[in-house]
Amino acid sequence: MRLPPSKRMRSPDIPGGSLRLRGLRPAGPPPRPALEPVRVQRLADRTGMISICGQRIGLGRDYAQCTVFIAVSETTLAVELGDGDIRIIRRTTSQAVRNIKSRPPRTASIS
Question: Which residues in the chain show pLDDT less than 70?
Fold first, then answer.
C-alpha cells in the first residue's frame, strides 16, 4: 500500500540533509585486530573430535568428553591438552571464531 505524498517521510539523504541530523559526529578509526591469539575452549565429543573455525580436529579417544583450551591465531591452532601437552595444528580455513565457551550457560530449573 502506497501512502499519499502528504504522509510520506522525507529522506535525510538529500544534499545537505545530513547536516541537520542531531548528534552527528565523524566516525572513529576502525577497530584493530587482536595482537594476541584468541583463547577458546571446546568440549571433545565421545570420539575425541573437536570443531573450531569450521575445521574438525581429532585428538584421540583419550581426550573424549574432555574440555580443551585452544589458542587461535591467524595461521595456527595451539591445542592445550589437559596433561600439559600442546599440539600445534596448521589452520586450513580463514573463518573467524564464533563461540568462546564450549558449553551453553546453564539455566536454573524449578523442581
Answer: 1, 3, 5-21, 104-106, 108-109, 111
58: nearest Cα among 41, 46, 69, 75: 46
DSSP string, 22-66: TT-----PPPPPPSSPEEEEEE--TTSEEEETTEEEE--GGGTT-
**How many other β-carbons are positioned within 10 Å of the β-carbon of residue 63?**
20
- The pTM (predicted TM-score) of the whole model is 0.62
- Please tell me the predicted confidence (pLDDT) of residue 58: 94
Domain ranges of the chain: 38-90
Q: How far apart are CA 89 and CA 54, in angstroms?
A: 14
Q: All 3 cell numbers of residue 82? A: 589437559
d(CA 57, CA 80): 13
pLDDT digits (tens, 9 = 90+) for 27-52: 888 877 777 888 999 999 999 999 99
Contact predicate 86/93, CB 8 Å: no
